[in-house]
UniProtKB/TrEMBL annotation:
Residue ranges constituting the AAA+ ATPase domain according to the UniProt record: 37-178
CDD domains in the cross-refs: AAA
InterPro entries membership: AAA+_ATPase (IPR003593), ATPase_AAA-3 (IPR011703), CbbQ/NirQ/NorQ/GpvN (IPR050764), ChlI/MoxR_AAA_lid (IPR041628), P-loop_NTPase (IPR027417)
Entry's family note: Belongs to the MoxR family.
Any one GO molecular function term: ATP binding
Protein name from the UniProt record: ATPase associated with various cellular activities AAA_3
Keyword terms of this UniProt record: ATP-binding, Nucleotide-binding
Pfam family, any one: AAA_lid_2
Amino acid sequence: MEDKAINTQAEDLFSAMGNIISGQRNVMEDVLVAVIAQGHVLLEGPPGVGKTTIVNTLASLVNCSFRRIQFTPDLMPSDVIGNNVFNFQTSRFVLKKGPVFTHFLLADEINRTPPKTQAALLEAMEERQVTLDGETIALEEPFIVVATENPIEHEGTYPLPEAQLDRFMMKVLVSYPEASEEKQMLERLQNGKAPVLNELRPVLEQKDLIALSRKTDEITVEESVMEYILSIVRATRNDHNLFLGGSPRASLALLRCGKALAALNGRTFVTPDDIKRVCFPVLRHRIILKPEAEIEGLTQDDVIQLILNGVEVPR
């Protein structure tokens, strides 16, 4: 598999995921871009649109371990990262690893747990390591956190702090499927062909996914495209509609995601259109609207579009 072109491997993944998930191609593409760029993803959408299924399917197709944490108000940090447990037989403390020790971690409804437990993921997400009782333990590559949250229900939730939001490479909005896609789901169920995740066969191996990430280092980025990225991010910091703009981490994320998207499309160079395409999922959770902009009915995506309209596109 390692000699396949990166876009061929991506199409293999898309095809296999399409056998489980009806529609949501843009969502699957965004998630795959983030995974290849070694970044974490925040999925936001109403219940029942397949957020969990997308992550579980992708982990199965690349033959990686998958763990799920259902975040609740009483969840403790030790429930996420683990702790040292005393073994009476050996009279020693033994490390009991938490679910964070996996390749794909699904943090389901992450905004339902208090900030103290949310913060337990900060080191793991940024440093790819966990510190327990002064001992630092590296996490196995790849390590991808995919968190979900429901945008409708706010009772009993704890909004994610900006420091943690900034550690997600992308925030992907998952909407309802089209009528034709939903009908396809009904027909599959009616005809007894409903997909079964346990029967999925991997189309890539763990080492192939790591190799895909390495290949993005070979993607060429022209100086004009680098300046384009800088102009967009710096414009968010000076926009009159925004209280907070993108950080330098946003610039790095745009570059990495642009390279991953170019590779998925079979190109060896990044175009301005690649940067435009990834701007929305990369920036929408990193900018904060001013109250007056919200009163006017503007959204983060509206402001990003206005900024893109105002920044000169390199030829």
